[in-house]
TrEMBL record:
<dbReference type="GO" id="GO:0008146">
    <property type="term" value="F:sulfotransferase activity"/>
</dbReference>
<keyword id="KW-0808">Transferase</keyword>
<protein>
    <recommendedName>
        <fullName>Sulfotransferase</fullName>
        <ecNumber>2.8.2.-</ecNumber>
    </recommendedName>
</protein>
<dbReference type="InterPro" id="IPR000863">
    <property type="entry name" value="Sulfotransferase_dom"/>
</dbReference>
<feature type="domain" description="Sulfotransferase">
    <location>
        <begin position="55"/>
        <end position="312"/>
    </location>
</feature>
<dbReference type="InterPro" id="IPR027417">
    <property type="entry name" value="P-loop_NTPase"/>
</dbReference>
<comment type="similarity">
    <text>Belongs to the sulfotransferase 1 family.</text>
</comment>
<dbReference type="Pfam" id="PF00685">
    <property type="entry name" value="Sulfotransfer_1"/>
</dbReference>
Length: 330
């Protein structure tokens, strides 16, 4: 089996290792990662076969629950600021969920929404949870965000319990310890998390102009500086006039978790994928894992991740800026 878009892949998928213990979707192991069956059966092959990249596309990549919603909001508001100034009362982010403003590449093709994706104005901002090694060929700039594995684990577990209800799966009995054990074994959606991160980290070192690697914790500490870095990388840096008017700060304020939580569509609505919009908004802080996990559990996660990262050159404890070459103030 050479690639997930070979003829008959959907039937051959049944031969791949299966994991059913991490709800809400059954997972299959492919190319070293545990991917949802529906992604393997339709989303991935459709995206790789039918995606027509444009030179100015921006692809937002992340492991699930690593700051994806915030990254989508920031990137969308930045790329579309000419048509939608952050101060506009009818700004799309004041009326719609960020996930409906920035579509997931694989899901769009799996739902046969190729025409909608093709109709998006340039520069298109799209998103994916796919590992770097499984991205469609021909993509241009990729912005990747990573997050502390312990916070990712807790956020994934809580999100899973909420989303399971939306898709009719009972996950109430799915404990955090069970989730932790599967996470440490790499058997979670798009896992192993550390391999997902390491692939993008290596790509950012190898081709810094093509992949921007961001750390969620750094973005929390300096959101405006991180946004400037991202805007420059995306090819739409803030002009001196925009800086004087405080446009970057206005975008950060528009996309703050507190502001997004208050949008009616995010309180009561559902995303295009049918998931309750409020499931995407929790605390958004760093270190909240300690409110849910024991120190022993945290140590187990750290050890599993450190072991998995050996030889990669990446460490979650490294305080070195992820992208010094793109720091406007450097």
């Amino acid at each position: 089996m050479d690639s997930p878009h070979d003829d008959g892949f959907a039937s051959e998928m049944a031969e791949l290792p299966l994991e059913t213990r991490y709800p809400p979707f059954a997972l299959r192991q492919y190319a070293g990662f545990w991917l949802p069956e529906r992604t393997l059966a339709r989303g991935l092959p459709a995206a790789r076969d039918r995606f027509a990249p444009r030179p100015d596309d921006v692809l937002l990549a992340s492991f699930p629950k690593s700051g994806t919603t915030w990254l989508k909001a920031l990137a969308f508001a930045t790329a579309r600021r000419a048509a939608h100034p952050p101060s506009a009362h009818d700004h799309p982010l004041r009326q719609r969920n960020p996930h409906d403003c920035v579509p997931f590449l694989g899901i769009g093709f799996a739902l046969d929404k190729d025409v909608e994706l093709e109709a998006l104005p340039s520069p298109r901002v799209l998103a994916t949870h796919l590992p770097f090694s499984l991205l469609p060929t021909g993509r241009s700039r990729v912005v990747y965000v990573c997050r502390d594995p312990k916070d990712v684990l807790v956020s994934c577990w809580l999100f899973t319990r909420k989303v399971s209800e939306s898709v009719g799966v009972d996950a109430e009995s799915f404990s955090l310890r069970e989730a932790m054990e599967l996470f440490c074994a790499g058997r979670c959606m798009y896992g192993p998390q550390w391999l997902h991160v390491a692939e993008y980290w290596e790509a950012s070192r190898r081709a810094a102009g093509e992949v921007l690697f961001l750390r969620y914790e750094e973005m929390l500490r300096d959101p405006v500086g991180s946004l400037r870095t991202m805007a420059e990388f995306m090819g739409c840096a803030f002009s001196p006039e925009e800086e004087e008017r405080g446009v970057a700060r206005a975008i950060v304020e528009l996309c703050s978790l507190d502001k997004l939580k208050k949008v009616e569509a995010n309180r009561k609505g559902r995303t295009a994928a049918g998931i309750k919009a409020d499931a995407y908004f929790r605390k958004g802080v760093a270190g909240d894992w300690s409110s849910h996990m024991t120190p022993e559990m945290g140590k187990m996660v750290d050890e599993a991740v450190e072991d998995g990262l050996q030889g990669s050159g990446f460490s979650f404890t490294d305080s070195t800026p992820a992208n010094p070459e793109f720091c406007p103030d450097a």
